[in-house]
């Protein structure tokens, strides 16, 4: 039996199912509205810093609050400059590399654009 539902836009799984007005994927957990263009939805999402400035890939930002690093006694100090950020989906929407610490994910609410 073939499904008349479209495959999951996130993982291309053919096992999508209807969940009320939305479609859901049991393999990756992605939910979407039928007929919604996934690329158009991503383009409309704007990540903003603590001051409301729009952020983009490759921007430089400054940390505005001391941030404890989970699983470590290290701290990212206020005023730390982070260069060449990458925007990603999720709760921690900035992916970066901090000098002296290494790769890290940050929330945009704790940075300001330089």
Automatic annotation (TrEMBL):
Residues 47-113 form the Protein YjdM C-terminal domain. SUPFAM superfamilies: Prokaryotic SH3-related domain, Zinc beta-ribbon. Residues 5-33 form the Protein YjdM N-terminal domain. Pfam families: YjdM, Zn_Ribbon_YjdM. Belongs to the YjdM family. NCBIfam families: phnA. This is Alkylphosphonate utilization protein. It comes from Arenimonas metalli CF5-1.
């Amino acid at each position: 039996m073939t499904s008349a539902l479209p495959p999951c836009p996130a993982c291309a799984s053919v096992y999508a199912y209807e969940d009320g007005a939305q479609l859901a994927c049991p393999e990756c957990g992605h939910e979407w509205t039928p007929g919604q263009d996934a690329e158009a939805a991503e383009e409309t999402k704007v990540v903003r810093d603590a001051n409301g400035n729009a952020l983009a890939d490759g921007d430089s930002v400054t940390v505005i609050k001391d941030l404890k690093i989970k699983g470590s006694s290290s701290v990212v100090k206020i005023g730390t400059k982070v260069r060449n950020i990458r925007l990603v989906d999720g709760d921690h929407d900035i992916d970066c590399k901090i000098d002296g610490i290494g790769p890290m994910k940050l929330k945009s609410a704790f940075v300001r654009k330089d």
